[in-house]
Structure formats: C-alpha cells, structure tokens
Amino acid sequence: MASRITVLFKRNAIGCALTTLLSKRSKCSITQLPLNLCSVRTRGLHVTKNVGRTIQINPMEPCYVRGEHTLRVPMTLFQGNRERLLNRLRKNSDVPTKGAFVMLQGGVDVPFNDTDIDWPFRQESYFQWCFGVEEPGCYGCIDITSGTSILFFPRLPAEYAVWQGKLHSLEDFKKRYAVDETYYTDQIAQVLSDKQAALLLTLYGRNTDSGNTAREAVFDGIGQFQVDNNLLFPEIAECRVIKSSQEIEVLRYVVKISSEAHKAVMRAVKPGLMEYQGESAFLHYAYSVGGCRNVSYTCICGSGHNASILHYGHAGVPNNRLIQDGDICLFDMGANYCGYAADITCSFPANGKFTEDQKMIYNAVLDACNAVLQSVKPGVSWVDMHLLSNKVLLTSLKKGGLLIGDVDDMIKAGLGEVFQPHGLGHLMGLDVHDVGGYLPGCPERPVAPGIRKLRTARTLSAGMVLTVEPGCYFIDCLLDAALANPEQSKFIVPERLRDFRGWGGVRIEDDILITESGVENMTCVPRTVEEIEAWMAVGRDQIKLPQERRRTVE
Ligand SMILES: [Mn+2]
What we know:
Layout: E1 3-10, H1 13-26, E2 29-33, E3 37-44, E4 47-50, E5 53-54, E6 63-64, E7 73-74, H2 76-91, E8 100-105, H3 125-131, E9 139-143, E10 149-153, H4 160-164, H5 170-177, E11 181-184, H6 188-194, E12 199-201, E13 226-228, H7 232-241, H8 245-266, H9 275-288, E14 294-295, E15 300-303, E16 328-333, E17 335-337, E18 340-341, E19 344-349, H10 356-375, H11 382-399, H12 407-412, H13 415-419, E20 465-468, E21 471-473, H14 476-484, H15 486-489, H16 494-498, E22 505-507, E23 510-514, E24 519-521, H17 529-537, H18 546-553
Parallel strand pairs: 1-4, 8-12, 10-11, 12-13
Antiparallel strand pairs: 1-3, 2-3, 4-5, 6-7, 8-9, 9-10, 14-17, 15-16, 16-19, 17-18, 20-23, 21-22, 23-24
Helix pairs in contact: 2-3, 2-7, 8-9, 10-11
The structure holds manganese (II) ion.
Manganese (II) ion binds near residues 343, 467 and 509.
Cofactor: Mn(2+)
EC number: 3.4.13.9
Subunit structure: Homodimer.
C-alpha cells in the first residue's frame, strides 16, 4: 500500500532549491509550513524526515514535545523542581531527617456530568510541577532524605489496550518520566512500608485566588502512616513562585507562540467577523504552530461594549457578537504548553484605524503599562506598581477631559477602581493566576479600595513571572455608582463621560519576568497606535471572512 513521506527543509535558499529539485524529480506536491519550513509530500514510507534525519517523535523519550517545530521540555525540568523543593524541606527543622516522604496525588479524569465522556485531561498543577506526568490517576512521592522519586500508575486491565493502544509498562514510565522507581497505585502502602516511611507530607492549602483547596493525597492503607498536611503547602507554593531557568524557557516559548497567535488574529479581524472566529483563529494558530492543545483560560474576545466585560466569553456570552465597524476589540487569550500558561491581552480597532477617542484611552493605558515596565525590578512592591499605574491612567483621563481635580485625591476617593476594577496583574506559571500570592509571611491582602483586588501584595524578586495588565473600562454599574457618590462624582465630567457610555474598554497585558537587573518583557506584539495600525494594514483588503468562504463553496 502506498503511503506518504514528508521531508522538511528550512525555508532558506538551499532548502528551497532542494525542495524544487525534489518536487520535479518525484512529481510530488509542496506545502508551505509555518516556522520557516518547507514540506515535500510524496508517496513512500510513513515516516517524517528532516534532511535525512528521522524526526518521528519517540513517545517514550524523557521529554514533553509536540513535533520538531515545538519546544522540547526535558524531564530534568521537573527533576530540578523536586531538587529545589527538597532543599527547602531539608532546611525546615520541623521535617524529620529520616523517614519523611512528600506524598502527592495527581489529577483525575473529570466526566461531562453523568456520562462516560471525560473533559480533556488537565494535570493538577503541583503534581505537574513535581513530575510532569501526562496521565490521570497517578501518585508521586519523594524520599526527602535520599531524594528518591517514585511514581505510581493505575493498573489498567489488559482489555484497555483495545481502547487506549498498547499499555505502557512500569519500565516504560520510569524512562519516560525519568524517576527512580515506578509501581502501581495498588502498591503504595506496601512500597512506603518497605521503605519504612515514618511521616508523609501531604498537600493541603487554600488557593488565594479561587478559595479552593489543593487535593490532599488519599490512598488505600494511608491510615497506617503518620501524616502531616501543614508543612508541605507553604514550602512547595513558595518554590512555584520563583521560576527556574528551565521553567522560564517554557514560559518564554508559550508567551512567544501566544504573541504570534494574537498577531495572526489581528490580521484576520475586520467588521463582519464574529468574535468567536477571532477565538478560533487563536486556538488554531497556538495548536497547529505551537503544539498547544489547551489555552490557559477561556478566550475573552470582546468587541464594542463587550470589551468592558472583564471575563467576557463565558457560557452565557460565548464570544458570539458580530464585530462592527468602529468597534474597539479587547482580546485576552493565552496558550498553554506543558502545563505552563501565557496570558496576553491586545486591544485594537476592528477596522484597523483608531478614532481620536480610541487613541486617547488606548494611550492612557499604554502609558500606565510603560510606566510600570520602566519601574519594575527586584525589591519593588507590587502595590506601589499598581498605584503608579492608576496614577498615570487617571492623569491621562484628566488630560482627555474626562476628569477634573487633583489626581492623588482621586486615588484616595477610589476613582482608580471605577475605571480599572481589577489589580495590575498576577503571578503566572503553571496556573494563569499562579499560586503564592498571599503565603504566610508575605504582605497581607490590602483592604483599601483600589488595591483590595490585587492577587498579590508581594515585594518582587528575580525569577518571578507576572502579568502587567492595566485597563480602562466604561462599565455602566460602576459609573452610575460613582456619579451617585459625591466623593467621586466631583472628579467626573459627565458631559465628556457620555461620549464613552457603551464604548467598551481597553486592556494591555504583557507577561514579564523579573530579572536580577530589572525586567524582561516576554510578550512581543504591536503595542503603540502606529505599530498596531501598520501591522493591521497589511493584507487588510484581502481578508476574507470565513462565512464568505463558505458561500463560495456552496
Ligand atoms: Mn491576566
């Protein structure tokens, strides 16, 4: 039976010459692939080759990868994370020097309601951070004294091979995840008892963004061991706050892919497009080019008034409005790779050209964003960055004729929260709103209006990854409340405000790494008015709406 061979060449002079030569000789078809690769398809063996080198991915290779064009994440990343955790725990005098084990339970499959169909599996983040395991239903433990890492996998009945393909052996899993030992989950108690485990450290703690608690490990026979569920949580959460160089590499990758996907979306948007078609373009780019099967949160693709709805895109309003000429668009979307999140927002005019009012609000937010990017560095308080951003924004709104009076007095009166009812940004990592915002020993959540929504009040350190996402929104219920409050209404110019009722909003969101010397902005998208207009102008008259394409087919 004839099958296909794919040969990949770099899209440079030599690559293109080889492509042409080969296509002439073998009468095969040529496809252009992203990431500067040309592909030649011909009949032959079903293998993928890269200039004579086989690039078929070995599924048991100790890494996470989704094809040669994507990032290879070696399991040493997770070994490094475990090492960092062990270093902290060994310094903690409450942890016994012998017989103590970290004991984690991984995520489980979640079905659609009462059916036998599951949601695509998402690994529990602490488990992912420690082991990088892709399968559901696993457990993992680490001997704190020796550092030995052990994974436990569900013992699947032989007939599962019919549905799932060849079942992997424990030896396969040991190689795949680069751990010291592997067993089945029905052996946990026996294995721990053979190892004379005296104390199990399980994970129990509150996520300060959701209020939910981390799932504490439970297994048959746990009753025979002493368990402590207090020690582990603050230590492992603190470890997750500071990213290792290997984690940073993954974050840079997922932020880069997400940036490119946003740019592709901006060039696909024009009046007449449905908002969800922008979402669809993002998902397609992130997955097909970046190997990102998941996004980090539901895509927010608001146009016009919807741009003022902070978490637009939820089930009740599933990005289903037709984008109109003159709309501002606020698209907040981030891909996910190997569990690691990106979280980027681009705001741009639907037709590619800003109006004067759109420009004024956009530049007010951009100035706030830039002020933070210029000041942020280790040792700086996140609360101060939020207040700085508020101050710059309100100063610009005053210049734009929307506000009058002293800006510091406005902040004291809570005007910041009227136009930006969310915090400046948040920690980001395996979770888009990453853990560690309010750990014991960190500054507590502020209570004052304007800053009480912050997801962390920490002093910044090198290795932290955060979003910087100032915004300015015209939200009717907040504006009405402010106008009804004499302490706030005295700063507002109602006639000018009327121009912006139903107008929507602007958010600019970058993903940043705090470095020793300051900051690295990992996001790379057009940001100034000029950059956005220039980027969107290219090919604008040739944009074809998907619905027009469909009509052509019919
Ligand atoms: Mn965000």
